[in-house]
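Model: Ready when you are.
Researcher: Fold this.
Model:
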Amino acid sequence: MVKMGSNIKFICSYIMANPGARHKEIREALCRHNGIDPKVKRGHYTIYFSHLRNERNYDHLWTNINGQFYINSQGVLRTI
């Protein structure tokens, strides 16, 4: 079981360590981190990068510029 908030912390840490990473790369790293084969669970964790659900928008933590993600100051706070 994944502890609440640990996926966000992982994503923020990953983007901070890999500025300019694409969402597929981040999502696959998150899958591997949680013991999930990203090839089997295609599309898993896409909700973190989707704007389909207004109540769960994480744009305040990272910025998407031409498909590449960069950490924001609020996102840096989530890595601590």
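Researcher: Now this one.
Model:
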Amino acid sequence: MTRSQFFQHFDLLADQPDAVAKMRELVLQLAVRGQLVEQNSKDEPAQKTVERARQAWPEWKVRERLKAERQAPPHPLPSAWAWTCLDEIGDTNPRNEADDKLEVGFAPMKLISAGYGEPVSFEAKRWAEVKKGFTHFADGDVVLAKITPCFENGKSAVIRNANNGIGAGTTELHVFRQYSGCVLPDYVLIFLKSPRFISDGFPRMTGSAGQKRVPWDYFANTPFPLPPLAEQRRIVAKVEELMALCDELAARQQARHAVRAQLQQSALHHLLAARDPHTFAPAWQRVRDQFHLLHDTPDALPQLRQAILQLAVQGRLVPQNPKDESAADSLRKVAKEKKRLSEAGQGGRAWQFKPIGEEEIAFAPPQGWQWAHIIDTAERVTVGYVGPMKNEYVSAGIPFLRSQNVRENRFRPDGLLAVSREFHQKIIKSALAPRDVVVVRSGNVGTACVIPDTLPEANCSDLVVIKRPLALDPLFLSFYLNSLAKAHVEEGKVGVALTHFNTESVAGIPICVPPLAEQKRIVARVEALLRQCDVLAAQLHQTRTLGAHLLNSTLHHLLAA
């Protein structure tokens, strides 16, 4: 693919992440390598322009430049171009002389943009107010932000329309003022914004973290590729044309994303509006058929998964069966079992909560379902170990979970620590068993997962532990905690501040309990739907990866041509 073909058909690749930004970088990079416009043998060679600039040097500069060491050119240039540096063709520390009463333009860093071609705005000041302690500039100068992160972000600009043509600004600027009209300010700006100049400047920055600066020597003496003046004009015009194309493509991309967001929200609305499995089926089919159109961004998938969970725990994914044992019967059996354990001295804390009020009921219970508190559905609700852990971790022993091991509906083994069996026995009250459900108390509050069968023996830190869910399938409970209940927690409806989210908070969360047989059907249906989401997400990732590879390969080819 030629450069002209690439720019003509770039809109075919423009939907890739960062595609427009990469195109802007390519334009700047091609421009300063002499690969953006055709050369003309009739143009005056750039070396003559450099010689005219040297004739304008003040005496002190003649002495300084004779002692300056030239850096090796980084790559070949077209024949009429010349390697020079900004300090050779201009003043890199200019000063202004003006009447103290003159109104001038003042530019703090916030008024200097990182975008290409965006003008600098000015505050009006008297020259006496800003002539000392600030960086001087005038119309036609080119300024570069030298401090992190402004330098990395590409903050640089051509000064135009300053009050009375001169001004001053933040001390965190380098300034270039040309000699003898040898270079167009806009071409200098293209160079300062080019990816190579910025990336090569990173390791040259000096100073402490958060206060690193690009040194004057890098700004002033980095090899600068100078084209003939006539070609500079063609380059600047072409860059402006292509940057305008980038702006247009970015606007189209933004408009497409806005339309997709609307379609996505409409699809989710239809999903969440499904009152039963019959109305859910066509809404889900629409999502599947139009997945690549509706869910083309990473943030869309969590919303889709959340919608599935929300429908599941409200009884809208699978049909009810009047032959199933009702939740009321299951809850009565749990109450008897808990009474037996209590009488045997094996029960947990018996909280007494008020009956669930109308304001706590999020939806009408389907047939056979019943609202209850979480404590009414499980053997007990307790908490993990909250004491000091200094020197308690061992390389091999009993797995010890922390909040980072708990993800929504998923145990995460990464970073799993271990404690000795002796310490495990010492804190046996926080021991975990498969099918227990753990809930995060700090950080991502309310996130829950089920302890898997792969952890037959484990312990945990400061997590809320729901031991032996009896009236609930553990996965159904996890689905609920990560959907409706999590919203309930985040809204502060658990009766305590989130900073004090505790066992009582979890024990008192209201939950609509389905018949156990229906829970198993719900869990199976949710797992099947989430697997479909994973497959669709993998396909989307593959498509985007291939698109990104094609884009990067094309850019590499064009730069290497």
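Researcher: Key takeaway?
Model: The chain is about 40% helix and 15% strand.
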